[in-house]
Amino acid sequence: MTHVKHINKHLSYGMGTTAAFQIDSKKDHTYIKPEEKTINASGKIAKWGDDNRYPQNFLATVRKNGAAGASYRFLKATHYGQGFKLHRLDSTDDGKEQKQIVPVSSIPDINQFFKRSKMQRFWIEIIHDLETFNIAFPEFVLTNDFSKIHSVRRQQTAKMRFELINEKSGLIENAYFCHNWKTSTDPDDKNYVRKIPVMDSYFSAEEIKEYCKSKKIHKFVMPIFYPLMDEVYYPEPDHHSPYRNGWMEVVNNIPEYKKAFSKNQLNIKYMVYISEEYFLRTYGSDWDKFKLDKKKEIRQNLTDSIDDHLAGNKNAGKSIQTTVFKDREGKWVKGIEVVPLETKNDGDGKGLLDAGTGNQEIMGAIGTDPNLMGTGIPGSKLGGEGGSNKREAFSILNSLYKPKREITLDSWRFLRDYNGWEESLEGAFAVENLTTLDKNPTGTQTEM
Hints:
Elements: H1 2-10, H2 54-62, H3 66-80, E1 84-91, E2 97-102, H4 108-117, H5 119-133, E3 135-142, E4 149-155, E5 160-162, E6 174-177, E7 194-197, H6 205-215, E8 219-221, E9 224-225, H7 241-245, H8 247-264, E10 270-274, H9 276-283, H10 286-289, H11 292-310, E11 324-326, E12 332-334, E13 336-340, H12 346-366, H13 370-373, H14 387-399, H15 402-408, H16 410-419, E14 425-429, E15 431-434, E16 444-447
Antiparallel strand pairs: 1-2, 1-14, 3-4, 3-8, 3-9, 5-6, 6-7, 10-13, 11-12, 15-16
Organism: Mesonia aestuariivivens
Protein name: Phage portal protein
């Protein structure tokens, strides 16, 4: 009892949660209506952005930006690597650390849990949230007697909001899930919003187990996040800087600008001069006898023939033959003269340079090497590097992922400790390093 009091003092989460719970219950967030009622909010929610829709606004901008989308996709795949693997740490005779792979299927309890929770999908989803927002919300579902974690699932970060800090405890005690957050969303509207207790990842599995038992909590989220600097509720990732400073908007606006420019500009390559003397010499005395409509038709047919002759790739390099004669004043006159026009697309070229610079800013902030993405500023040498540079860049990127993967593995360590699985079992995301064919015929080498 003393221990529970100690926990209540420091871990006052989940007040007012319901005691009744069944594992096969259908009362889950997937059955909550995605619509939202526009009524006055109670003020319990810590807004994410001025309109409480920062994640939605950010994702809408990223979805229009090829450089950002590709960069995030690349980093998510790098983070996951070859997937989650279990291993035991051992040492060789000479004292070096050695990892012994343990197949999940060899441990029935863990194997059943992984199947039940679809853990391969869970890890990928959690990684997607961490890489995009620097925070993820795994939700843990306990058995009826609180002794085990029955399953775990990912709640989408973009749909989660924290409750305001409890001034008495100094803790965030609850979070709220809603499909469509707005400024006016009422967190107490149970038809559209689900309240979920929050657990602090700094507490041990045993402390959380005793607390959940005392408060009859069967579901809770335990947010995992990359280290915060001075934020209180939500991370402000440095890789969001191109979104906040406007670079993404600049790059996103360029296609629309180029489309309008292409649609509205005069795309004329040649000026064709046709002398009136040409028709007089071609048709002789009949020309003066033709009616106006007939002359107009002859002129139009000639113009169309010249256009057809000059237009298209298949006509590139062709010439036009015409007569040269003296007019009544004795001056030489060209019957037909084709003069190329100079076209200046000042805005067009500038837009490409802006896009290249913007994409470099975006990829640099997100942390993707142009060597790996195969991109660069138009006209520069970036993106044309050889395989050795790509291998080195990928190797460096993988080595920098150790801290990020440690955060992701917090969920595994908590699962292991809460369910009483073997303490020596460690989790890791296998890494496939690129190598040369002389070292490995497949060109890759998998490491833990």
